[in-house]
C-alpha cells in the first residue's frame, strides 16, 4: 500500500529559474521483443536484451522528474519495439512525465540466420543496432543505426600484385532517418550485397574457397563501399536521410582506412526533385 503522506520532493518548486533540457535514465538493461517486416519473410519477432536511454525535458519551476516512471513503462506489459512504434513510445513517455520533449535510444544485438554458400551450414551473424527516437517541437524523428561487418579486398593490391591481394574485415555503419516502413533486414542485406563479400559464422572448406574467390572478383575501396551503398539507399522510400561510413581494419597497416557520406538531413523535397530530374533526363534521352 502506497503511503500518500510521504513528501514528494521532486515535485516541489525550484528557485533557480533554469529549465533542464534532458533528464532521465541511461543504461537500463531490459528484455524486449523487436519486430521487423520484409515482404519475403513477413513479420519476424526476436527476443533480445536491450540497453535503454529514456530522457525528457523538465520545466524551470519543477525540482525533479519522476525517474521511476521510465522504468514503470518498460515493466507494465511485455516490451515490444519496432521502427514503426517509436513515435508511440515517445508519446507515451512524454505524457507520463508531463513533458514536451522526449528522447528514446535502444541498443541491442540483432541476429540473422545465414547459410554458408556451398555446404549450407547454418550459423548466426550478429549486428549491433541502435534505434533512436526524438520528439521535439511536436515533430517525431526516428533514426536507425546498424553496424554490418563485411570483407573488403583492395583493388590497388589486386592490380599491382603478381598473385593474391590483401583483404580485411570492415565495419560498415549506416544511420538512416527512417519512416515507419523501414526494414532492418532489408538494410542489412543491402549493405552486404555491396561488399567484396559478406561474412558467415560457419564456413567449411568449399565455402571458404567460394568466399575468398568472391572477394577477389569484387574488390572495393572504402570510397567504393560508401558510394555503392549510398546509391542504393537513396532509392528507398523508407529512408528520409542517411549517413554511411566504412572502416577497413587494414591487414598491411597499423591504421584503418575510412570514408563517409553524410546526407542524414537531406529533405524529402530534395529527394523528390532529384527523382523528377532523373525522369526528365530519361525522357529526354528517348526523345
Distance between the termini: 79 Å
In CATH, what is the class? Alpha Beta
- The total of helices stands at 7
> If you average the pLDDT, what whole number results?
91
What is the H/E order?
A: EEHEHEEEHEHEHHEEH
The helix-and-strand class reads alpha+beta
- Superfamily at the CATH H level? Urate Oxidase
Overall outline:
elongated
Give a structural overview:
By secondary structure, the protein is of the alpha+beta class. The chain has a single domain, classed as Urate Oxidase, CATH 3.10.270. The protein contains seven helices and ten strands. Strands 1, 2, 3, 4, 5, 6, 7, 8, 9 and 10 form a ten-stranded mixed sheet that branches.
Topology, pairings included?
Elements (H helix, E strand, L loop, with lengths): L19 E19 L3 E17 L8 H9 L4 E2 L4 H11 L5 E14 L6 E15 L2 E15 L1 H6 L6 E12 L5 H10 L3 E2 L6 H12 L5 H12 L5 E11 L6 E8 L4 H19 L1
Summary tags:
elongated; 10 strands; 7 helices; Urate Oxidase; alpha+beta; 287 residues; ten-stranded mixed beta sheet
